[in-house]
Specification:
Blueprint lengths: L10 H14 L2 E5 L6 H11 L5 E5 L6 H10 L3 E4 L2 H4 L10 H13 L4 H7 L3 H11 L2 H10 L4 H6 L7 E5 L1 H4 L1 H4 L5 H4 L3 E5 L13 E4 H14 L4 H16 L7 E2 L2 H8 L2 H19 L12 H10 L3 E8 L2 E8 L3 H10 L2 E6 L6 H5 L7 E5 H5 L8 E6 L11 H17 L3 E7 L2 H8 L7 E3 L6 H8 L4 E7 L3 H5 L11 E6 L9 H14 L1 H21 L10 E6 L6 H7 L5 E3 L2 H15 L2
Parallel strand pairs: 1-10, 1-11, 2-4, 2-5, 3-4, 5-10, 12-17, 12-18, 13-15, 13-16, 14-15, 16-17
Antiparallel strand pairs: 6-9, 7-8, 8-9
The structure holds iron/sulfur cluster.
Iron/sulfur cluster binds next to helix 5, helix 6 and helix 9.
């Protein structure tokens, strides 16, 4: 029944634990590095438990591929969904707000003006299953359904009641406004909920945040003037909002804004949603049905922002690249996931880098009994430990109170020296923030280096590194590159040879973190709250970054943790790696790195 002839050590035991957790209705946290085969172990556990209906959640659409293939191999009946907007053949990748798209799609279906939807109504479920079984790749399946004139989203949605493995991107279950369109609270109780890359729940508030830029407000004013000129009160409200944004003292960090002040300024959500409907009706008449799918109503995010002011969200203001934003998000992250996790029949959380298991009860409010398993602790290392060398440099720190030109130069010097002595491959340098990275890069030779920006895509860095003998990639902890980059040669061996962590990647202190700390302290005390918000985040980000280098049994890597605060036993214990060398001075660092890069990395 297991889909491979030789299971890896521990895979069957983990699958049995999954099955036991499903029977007992608990919560199982599985920490296992890349290479263990978590996906197949979890899915096989579902099979052993009698194939109960399971919502299998993935962070990105690329992560749908593997569970779909493995489910088919195991003999489960899978279906998948990712962003309806991205799947829509009518929109063809146009960029509009997700809520705009859902509303446009609703109008097109109601009026039967979407030919793909009309065709799909006639499509029988068995034919859709045949596409899945034959093509086994989500993107090919979506392309094929579109090519044949069907709406991929509604074709696949037909299979939800008939499938026992429903593979979905996070928002379908974890974003309440999207979840409610799919599953009632009662229905969730019929499902096991399995969350892949569950360390991402540390920043789950980001997926539900409501954000409005200053430019968006200006466009909304023009839009209201054109389509609803009688709404003078709302135009006045937006002018006052602009005035507030312009006068506020802001920087890159989130600054808390008084919620009552914003409520008084903007009024109630119903008025804004009515205005949005009114404008959309005008635009539908103006554009004609052919272009309905791409209609954008600029006021829509303002309506959602106002809605959030009447929910358990808090508003903040900040500036990025000369643009000012108001953003609103929940301080208590449990309000997002608790309704799902409380109702789910059982929960399986898995990742290569889980936070301390108490995070899930303390911060996310999981009430079910939690069992935690670190696969490498129980069954031994997945890849040989002698392939990794860990050095901690204690003569530097990114701590705010010691940041200075001297410190930036020291870091720049270490990074440059290390890179100069790397013969081939990629050195991934990870900074706690964009600001800190910028300060260090000022002292470095920027020829032949890749620098992550907020708009960087993973393919940008892969393109940059392809065909270069060696590259220095500068990335920000918790960013896209540290979470998802995997660069391998033709034989599948990792090209990342050195991971240099330039400072403990604690979250940047701002009003959001401060409010979260205050609120969580009321529940579990300040020490516990600090541990979860700072230590768990820093450790998870560090492990994510260093995990980029060793993806297979023959990969070798040097990890350099450059900050004396890495010696904190709470951090060291959670990182869980053997320290090979602690260096306390620049001279010692140079000596050790030179030898390591010459003799260890071959
Ligand atoms: S129903 Fe039409 S508009 Fe909606 S997602 Fe499908 S193809 Fe796109």
């Amino acid at each position: 029944m297991f889909p491979y002839s030789k299971p890896r050590t521990g895979q069957i035991s983990v699958a049995e634990k999954v099955a036991n957790t499903i029977s007992s209705g608990g919560c199982l946290c599985i920490e296992a590095p890349t290479g263990f085969g978590k996906t197949v172990a979890v899915l096989y556990g579902v099979k052993l438990a009698g194939s109960p209906n399971t919502l299998y959640l993935v962070r990105t659409r690329n992560e749908l591929v593997q569970p779909l293939i493995e489910s088919l191999k195991i003999g489960l009946k899978p279906v998948f969904l990712y962003s309806k907007k991205a799947m829509c053949p009518l929109l063809r990748g146009g960029s509009i707000d997700i809520h705009d798209f859902w509303e446009n799609c609703r109008i097109l279906r109601k009026t039967k003006m979407c030919p793909y939807y009309v065709n799909t109504e006639e499509l029988d479920v068995e034919s859709v299953y045949k596409f899945i079984e034959r093509l086994q790749n989500p993107f090919k399946i979506v392309r094929e359904l579109s090519k044949r004139g069907y709406c991929p989203f509604y074709s696949l949605k037909k299979l939800l009641p008939l499938s026992n493995i429903i593979i979905l991107t996070y928002p379908y279950v974890l974003n309440p406004s999207i979840r409610e369109a799919f599953f009632s609270e009662e229905e969730i109780s019929n499902y096991v909920v399995a969350v892949d890359e569950a360390h991402s729940l540390l920043s789950i508030a980001d997926i539900v945040e409501q954000r409005v830029s200053r430019i968006r407000i200006e466009r909304s004013i023009n839009e209201i003037r054109k389509y609803s000129p009688q709404s003078t009160l709302l135009i006045d409200r937006l002018y006052h909002l602009l005035d507030f944004i312009d006068k506020a003292s802001v920087d890159k960090r989130l600054r808390h804004v008084d919620k009552d002040f914003l409520r008084n300024l903007l009024g109630t959500p119903d008025t804004w949603f009515d205005l949005v409907d009114d404008i959309r009706i005008h635009k539908v008449k103006e554009y004609g049905y052919r272009d309905v799918v791409s209609i954008r109503v600029y006021c829509l995010p303002i309506a959602y922002l106002v809605w959030s002011l009447y929910s358990r969200y808090e508003p903040f203001i900040y500036q990025q690249n000369d643009l000012r934003y108001i953003v609103s998000k929940p301080i208590d992250q449990s309000i997002i996931v608790k309704p799902v996790f409380d109702k789910a029949s059982s929960i399986i959380l898995f990742s290569g880098t889980l936070p301390d298991p108490s995070y899930y009860s303390d911060v996310l409010g999981i009430d079910k009994p939690i069992e935690y398993i670190d696969v490498e602790d129980v069954y031994g290392p997945v890849f040989p430990i002698e392939n990794r060398v860990l050095v901690i440099a204690t003569y530097v720190s990114s701590k705010y109170s010691v940041r200075s030109r001297h410190i930036y130069k020291l870091y720049a010097d270490m990074i440059q020296y290390t890179f100069n002595h790397l013969d081939h491959g990629i050195m991934l340098t990870v900074y706690p923030s964009y600001d800190f990275m910028k300060c260090i890069l000022e002292y470095m030779d920027l020829d032949k280096v890749f620098i992550e920006e907020r708009s960087t895509r993973i393919n940008d860095v892969i393109d940059y590194c392809t065909n270069r003998k060696k590259c220095l990639v500068n990335a920000v902890a918790g960013g896209k590159l540290c979470e998802g980059i995997e660069i391998v040669d033709k034989k599948g061996r990792s090209l990342i040879k050195v991971v240099f962590i330039a400072g403990v990647p604690y979250p940047q202190p701002d009003d959001y973190v401060e409010l979260s700390l205050k609120q969580l302290s009321l529940k579990i005390g300040r020490d516990g709250a600090w541990k979860h918000l700072y230590i768990d985040t820093a450790v998870t980000r560090t492990k994510q970054a260093i995990g980029r280098a060793v993806r297979g049994p023959s990969d070798q890597a040097v990890y350099i943790l450059a900050d004396n605060r890495f010696m904190d036993p709470r951090i060291l214990k959670r990182i869980g790696l053997r320290i090979n060398k602690i260096v306390r001075s620049r001279a010692e660092y140079m000596r050790v790195v030179k030898v390591l890069l010459r003799e260890f990395l071959v």
